[in-house]
């Protein structure tokens, strides 16, 4: 069960990091109470400091329900910058050495946040553009429609050995490399949480799809994710669905109660193996020569390139020979093409059932036998 905790802060850091909980109170004070190097990832959706003045109305004179809450109001850029420095500095202390931080913002604040991140020693990995398929129109027609927000993904330092689940992102994207422009709708319909009056429970609730991608990319099952501006709990909800742990900090009791009800409806993950994508880099190394030793390829077998332009013969010692070239599958593949490098596992093929099959299929077969 998820618990709502009223926490009195102290300058003495807690020895044990709470997990799967919501701490209610001022984010800066709560952050100061958490132990050093204790979380794997931070996802932060801080106040944007929108600097709004006056009401915004549609052409039909109906009022736009925007962000008007006190938590988004600051007495100038200097105050906002001090606030940004404090929470980012604490998050860097709390992050593990190999941890990463995501922060989302708009043109109102993301550049100031980015400069602070660099000043504090974070190491930028990517900026990601969230392209909204259904953005709010620019009703006055005096600017471009603001159809995106920016996420910055950074490691705790340049030395961090951060997590990036490349294969999972590629699988999500139809077996193509995931790009840094993410197209998805804003939070609407059944996903948009409502309060007891039937109004939006939170003005800036993010879609779960956005958090799904960020969490799946940068964490592993069992990792703990800190959200210092928890709101209605999107980070916690997605973390729980993906078999991760979470810790939410929230100063508004109304938001925290909505988040608590939301999290209580989510069942814990029963099979963590479904929550991860095996990394090819972590698979055991299989030298090409092992295929010859185990009889999967015979000496003298003729391999051909995937374009059928070049051929090579397999030697007993696990090297190839092709015209004037001899060496590993990678060396010979590069030499015949006049290229600097070559992945021989995908370059060299065998005929099978009327089609060409990369020799990597044999490597995978041997891996399966060894496992």
Q: How would you characterize this protein structure?
A:
With 371 residues, this protein is an alpha/beta fold. It has 2 domains: 278 residues, Rossmann fold; 88 residues. A 9-stranded mixed sheet has the order 1-2-9-8-3-4-6-5-7, sandwiched between helices. Strands 13-12-11-10-14-15 form a 6-stranded antiparallel sheet. Strand 12 and strand 13 form a beta hairpin. Helix 2 crosses helix 3 and helix 5 crosses helix 6. The chain is elongated.
What labels would you give this structure?
15 strands, 2 domains, 22% strand, single chain, alpha/beta, 371 residues, disordered N terminus, 6-stranded antiparallel beta sheet, elongated, 9-stranded mixed beta sheet, Rossmann fold
SS element count, helices: 11
Number of domains: 2
CATH topology-level name of the largest domain: Rossmann fold
User: Structural class of the secondary elements?
Assistant: alpha/beta
Name the CATH superfamily classification of the largest domain. Answer: Vaccinia Virus protein VP39
Give the CA-based shape.
elongated
Q: Uncertain runs with pLDDT below 50, 5 residues or more?
A: 1-12
> What separation lies between the terminal Cα atoms?
38 Å
What does the radius of gyration come to? 26 Å
Rounded average pLDDT: 88
> In percent, how much strand structure appears in the residues?
15-25%
